[in-house]
Amino acid sequence: MTSTKVNVDLVRERAKCTFDLKELIHFVDGGEEITSERKAFEETVLAIKELKDDIPEDYLSHKERYEIAVRKACILRELRLRHDQNKPLLPERPTYVYNILPATIKDISPFYLHETMFLATIWGLMNDEQKAEWLSKALDMKVIGTYAQTELGHGTFLRGLETTATYDPETEEFILNTPTLTAYKWWPGGLGHTVNHCIILAQLYTQGKCHGIQPFIVQIRDLETHIPLPGVHVGEIGPKMGFQTANNGFLGFKNFRIPRKNMLMKNSEVKKDGTYVSSKSDRLTYGTMVVVRVNIVNDAAMQLSAAAIIAVRYSAVRHQSQLKPNEPEPQILDYVTQQRKLFINIATGHAIRIVGRWLWKTMLGVIQKILEGNLDQLPELHALSCCLKAVCTQDCTAGIEQCRLACGGHGYMNSSNLPLLYSHTTAAMTYEGENTVLLLQTARYLLKTWTQILEGDTKLNPTVLYLLNFAKPTDYRWENTNQGIIKGFQAVAAGKIKTAYDTASKHVSAGKSQEEAWNLASIQLVEASEAHCRVIICEVFSNEIQCASNTLSPNLSKVLQQLVELYLVHWALEKKGDILLYSTISKDDIPALRDRYEELLALIRPNAVGLVDGFDFRDEVLNSTLGAYDGRVYERLMEEALKSPLNAEPVNSSFHKYIKPFMEKAKL
Ligand SMILES: CCCCCCCCCCCCCCCCCC(=O)SCCNC(=O)CCNC(=O)[C@H](O)C(C)(C)COP(=O)(O)OP(=O)(O)OC[C@H]1O[C@@H](n2cnc3c(N)ncnc32)[C@H](O)[C@@H]1OP(=O)(O)O
Ligand SMILES: Cc1cc2nc3c(=O)[nH]c(=O)nc-3n(C[C@H](O)[C@H](O)[C@H](O)COP(=O)(O)OP(=O)(O)OC[C@H]3O[C@@H](n4cnc5c(N)ncnc54)[C@H](O)[C@@H]3O)c2cc1C
């Protein structure tokens, strides 16, 4: 970061910043100590020369990319083992160690599923005896695993999974089978050629009865030779939109036997004689997914923040067109339409990170209660994690695309890193529960809550308590303030929940079954769920910044408050139709909102570069020609272009082979 080499526009922008950058960085990390720890970890990782590349991945084959990713994943895993020694598996806050992946593996680690879902399932769904056998082996990579749930025919509808595990009391074994093509496991990360074990979700059959899906730990490859075991058909599913190095795989079984003790028995059990003992709640089998959904909210925030840094720095460096005749071309960051595209994504990066940490903390509290045998808060956590995973990945994906568009043609270059970031967040809209399906899960909870309210029950869970205020006519008045806007969103959510409830009830009254009525009302249900989620994001973001302001300096606090207000006003304008329909706002209030929005853009403009610097992503992590700290955009674009293998020779052989003969033929 030598200032002499930094682009002059960026130097000027940084000089304008009104707050202390270090203070913002510590705030983003969650404290000065965490910043130092993170930076030390980054230094250690980035000093390893075996993690650096000469050739950009884009020019490598699928196989080469995978092999390099595995080599790097081994180095990173070893580092992580040292770094995380004595740290709990579920730390107090989401870990920053994955943020280094874009600087090293670039795409997804083939060990990602091992480090997340495999370990989390062992931790969460094995009984103590099983944990003693498996957890340290998995942590030390003596066994490497993945989470194999999805099948070719079913990802969403878990009750429809077809893989079977049939208990044989004679040998005290389960026999695994893949009865149809659609029963093949399909998608699990690392499954193709990396892992030797899997958590398999299969329909449990014992004593002639099916007991629904249960998790099993299954060895699929020999630990010495890595050859698939007899009865196992495993491979990789091929190239995708992104995730090229994730090694997603397929897997089928033919009469494959595993010992009884390989069923994960923390919740349900199969006794030696085949007797099935059911769990307190069959939903506990889905526990790993809840943890991972919560984590995805945090990943999405990081990815959007990266995109915002790239697009804002580029917009400070890029000059185009004319604002005033006979004046130099302005920075594109000075166009108000550009500010509209970018500043909301800075605000959203903060909002989602903050909500993600709040959700993480909430989840740890619920897990603690579950460990004590109290499942009361699980439905609320499930409803929250579903809608937040869906809305946050949706907003971040849209935000990254907006950042890409804000970079014009250069945003379309892979070297900008925006396409890769997009490919990751858009995948997150599908994996770990397809977003529409998850929104419908939350809607199910909201409709139950609404029924409770109609029945006069006022004992609601904290995140839906606001609905009570809107169940009867109220005297609330719209106000163009943060709290007023949040109340407006609450009115929208309550109004949409009521409308969806009434629609479903109307269909039932007309003779439809509950299920048909649900499907007929499902567009409204999804919208109600999104509106409820917006209330949660707005409330948590606003409250947490308000609380933090007590300890932050006035300058930083002021800028963060501006971001909160921008977020609220942006969404009020985006959803003005809904607000006009469901709250007490009048159309005469809208121009004031619009004026305030434009004022906020102008207020944030001088701090735009400072704000994205505050996310504190190293150049290696951003991995972008457009977003580097020094703003040498054009030099980097040219340097990267020159790495194309096509530029290694002045004339490509295809000219002599095809073009020249073709031209000659055309002459005749
Ligand atoms: C620069 C930045 C750098 C950042 C670096 C970042 C690096 C990023 C790396 C990314 C790597 C990504 C790895 C990818 C991992 C993907 C792994 C997967 O997809 S794995 C595969 C993931 N696959 C999926 O996610 C599958 C999605 N499907 C499902 O989860 C379920 O089948 C279902 C929920 C849709 C329905 O299930 P069904 O059995 O039909 O249930 P019903 O509907 O009939 O509801 C019955 C009752 O149960 C209740 N309940 C339900 N669930 C839960 C729960 N979890 N808990 C509690 N309760 C739950 C429900 O509320 C209801 O309650 P009530 O009303 O009766 O009281
Ligand atoms: C990059 C990536 C990594 C993955 N990694 C893993 C992994 O490691 N392990 C693993 O087990 N799986 C993994 N998956 C699979 C993933 O979890 C599933 O793809 C996901 O759960 C969606 O299921 P599906 O593909 O069956 O979609 P579908 O359910 O077939 O969805 C298709 C459409 O149908 C709609 N739909 C389906 N059901 C309903 C309904 N009830 N109501 C309304 N609409 C509905 C959906 O909204 C969607 O529009 C991964 C997927 C991806 C893309």
What does this structure look like?
With 668 residues, the chain is of the alpha+beta class. Among the domains are: 115-287, Beta Barrel (Butyryl-CoA Dehydrogenase, subunit A, domain 2); 452-613, Butyryl-CoA Dehydrogenase, subunit A, domain 3. It is 53% helix and 8% strand. The strands form three sheets. Strands 1, 2, 3, 5, 6 and 9 form a six-stranded mixed beta sheet that branches. Strands 4-8-7 form a three-stranded antiparallel beta sheet, with no helix packed on it. A two-stranded antiparallel ribbon has the order 10-11. β10 (269-270) and β11 form a beta hairpin. α6 (112-125) runs antiparallel to α7 (128-139) and α14 runs parallel beside α17. The longest helix is centred in the middle third of the chain and has 36 residues, at 336-371. It is globular, with a radius of gyration of 27 Å. The mean pLDDT is 96. Bound molecules: stearoyl-coenzyme A and flavin-adenine dinucleotide. This is Acyl-coenzyme A oxidase. It holds the Pfam family Acyl-CoA_ox_N. One of its GO terms (biological process) is fatty acid beta-oxidation using acyl-CoA oxidase. Keywords: FAD, Fatty acid metabolism, Flavoprotein, Lipid metabolism, Oxidoreductase, Peroxisome. Pathway: Lipid metabolism; peroxisomal fatty acid beta-oxidation.
